[in-house]
Amino acid sequence: MMFAELVFPLPFRNTFTYSIPKDYEDVVEFGMRAAAPFGKRVLTGFVVNVTDTTNTEHKIKPLIEVLDEKPIITKKSLEFYKWIAEYYMCSLGEALKLSIPYGLEVESKRKIVVDKELCIQLLAKEKKSKTREKILKVLSEKEVINLTLLQKLIKKKNIYSIMRSLEQTGAITILDEIEDEKVKIKKVKYVKLAKPLADIYSYIPEIEKKSPIQVRALLEILNKKNKVIRLKELADKEISSSAISSLKKKGFVEVFEKAIDRNYVEVYNEQLIDFELTDEQKEVIEKVNCKIDNSSFNTFLLYGVTGSGKTQVYIELIKKVIAKNKSALVLVPEISLTPQITSRLLNNFKDNVAVLHSRMSLGERYDAWRKILNGKCQIVVGARSALFAPLKNLGIIIVDEEHDGSYKQSDSTPKYNGRDSAIMLGAMSKCPVVLGSATPSLESMHNVLTNKYELLKLTKRIDDALLPKISLVDVSVEQRKKKMKNIFSSVLLDKIDDRLNKKEGVIILQNRRGFSTSVFCIDCGKVEECTNCSVPMVYHINDNKLQCHYCGIFKPVPVKCPNCGSLSLKYFGTGTEKVEDELAFHFPQAKISRIDSDSISRKSSLSKILFEFSKGEVDILVGTQMVSKGLDFSHVSLVGVVSAETSLWLPDFRADERTFQLLTQVSGRAGRSKIEGEVIIQTFNPKHFVLQKVLMGDYEGFYNKTILERDQMNYPPFVHLCLIESKDENEEAAKNAIEDFYKELTAYRNYINISAPAPALIAKLKGFYRFHLLIKSNKNEDKGGVKMKQAIYKAFTEFNRKSRYNDVKLFYDVDPQSII
Ligand code: ADP
Ligand code: ZN
Ligand code: ZN
Predict the structure, then answer these.
(1) In whole numbers, what is the pLDDT of the chain averaged over residues?
(2) What is the DSSP string of 217-238?
(3) Any atom of ligand 1 within 6 Å of the Cβ of 585
């Protein structure tokens, strides 16, 4: 008898043992996925061990199915997932879930089949339990219902004991239905000749008499070079499948299936240019090449001003790695940057590149993933999740725009940071890691100054292009002078006009999407808020609806105040739609395109817009922070920022850093070649130190002041941070849970610093009330935050044992990007 130990993507830290059915004994291996019964469900787990003995005392059930033909993780990569689990405080199963592309999970849904009559009888007799009564009420109106829906309807999760007792009385039967994988290998049907041509020839006149269509089919096949045709192509030529079946019956043709790859096609494309590298580029490449050559780990911070040719450095390094027959991983921030860098990599390395990002279809992502797994390519470019692509034999990892917040997964477990994890992966794979940025994160620069990373610099723009001239426009002064035309200052409008006349490109940033960012009543002051979240609803002019940007729900535009009935509603705040609208008013001849997450939801729309902009078919590009990231268009000479305030006043310790990065990055889009660039930033706070540093292009000055504040205020990079969140539909429960947990934590007061629990800044999100508690632990005394995490686990165990609210979920965010 053989046994397999499995872990599941659930918050359990232990493994579960199953027996391996005879049929699977030769098949099961470490690193494959398998479906197994778990409680009353069937779940997909990972095989982390195969043995011929076991000392488990529980009753051992057999595995149901093995889901992979070959292992999708190796023993070596398991170490990496173990590190993720430990560092970001999740179970190994939750970490391993990252290794499979979305859509491949096989899961069962629990269905409840109801004996209605019996439920009605039981309902009539039920006196003791309110919950039981509610459940029976729902059940007596249904024949079949799934468990999650039932839980939702009665607004309670913990109903398992009641369900079990109902099952014993025979009122319900609980069934498991396995849902299939959402994506599959795409197979296509082909037709080919089943006999040598000579054997068929003699029959043709006879076939022709009865069915000319069949002869046409044969001719179509013969017309093909390799004598194989897709069934669909025949259908397109109006050759019916019945004609093919008759040919098949007669033994003339054969129909077969072939797996094909859904290839991702990048719409954006550039010409491949060969350059002479600059001296600075050569020097940088030389230093990293050393590490590539002797296969050793080192983290480099490539600090290169915008337009200094970082991408070309990456390309040269990858060439070197490929020449050594190793592979390369290139991480880029979510969405925006991908079209340009992807097209450059595809230009240079063609089929050897696999692209992985969220705008691809499930099928495309799945096929790219299989291409990597089967060793058919050596280069992967993608957003943070590409870190888990099954690449073997890594020779380099590149993290472009390393300062970008989207490297952190903030919305689901594990809340890992892709950049920081990439460094760990580099260390484990013994290869160099290159972090590139024009505005390095404070953490990374601090790591340079404490000798953890090695600094590489590109100080000059390519072709000696100058950095753009930046000016601040004080909106309150302009208002007094009556020189504001609604959201635009006359200065900015004049500059735009001038650049359009010269046929140069213009980029306008406003980091809010929608039209107006809130609607409020002048008479009673009430702001229209989302019903699920404590945030204002945003007006979208194109749909003529209000939308919540956190949970996505829509509401109709109100005609009167829902609170006092007043008709005086005011629309407040500026989003990209309004900017687009006003630009169209001022510049009716200009072609304007908008990029934000509303406008680029379709798969290739971003690439298409950028491609049009690169060819000068679009004159003005308006957008959210997406326009600030990595775009390289030589004809852009003017960048305008409608309001510098969108991120400046957020109550978050990274607000200054984010603002500096955003404004410096967007400025860097201007003047990247012969034409001198110019940047106009509109603001109410021209004296603010962040804006002053942006104005002077003074990264160092910005760094020095901000790092001092972080030190004084005990924030990263000087402390380990962990944000703990309690979340529940019931406000009291969420509050009590975090308070109970806090009480347990205070036992560890002498070595960690704990802030008292408080409602989160967005106190309600997607219908859940949220409370936060922040833990800090000094880096000098707590290497890797190990002590802090131990304290959290111990406190959690106690909380779980003692608290009445232990069914409220607690979430851990290690190294949070934001504490809102
Ligand atoms: P960054 O990523 O540093 O902002 P890019 O890598 O986009 O800059 O480079 C800016 C532009 O300069 C790109 O269009 C790139 O093709 C071009 N370029 C890069 N290296 C060279 C070189 N050595 N000679 C000429 N042009 C170069
Ligand atoms: Zn009102
Ligand atoms: Zn909402």
Answers:
(1) 90
(2) HHHHHHHSTTSEEEHHHHHHTT
(3) no
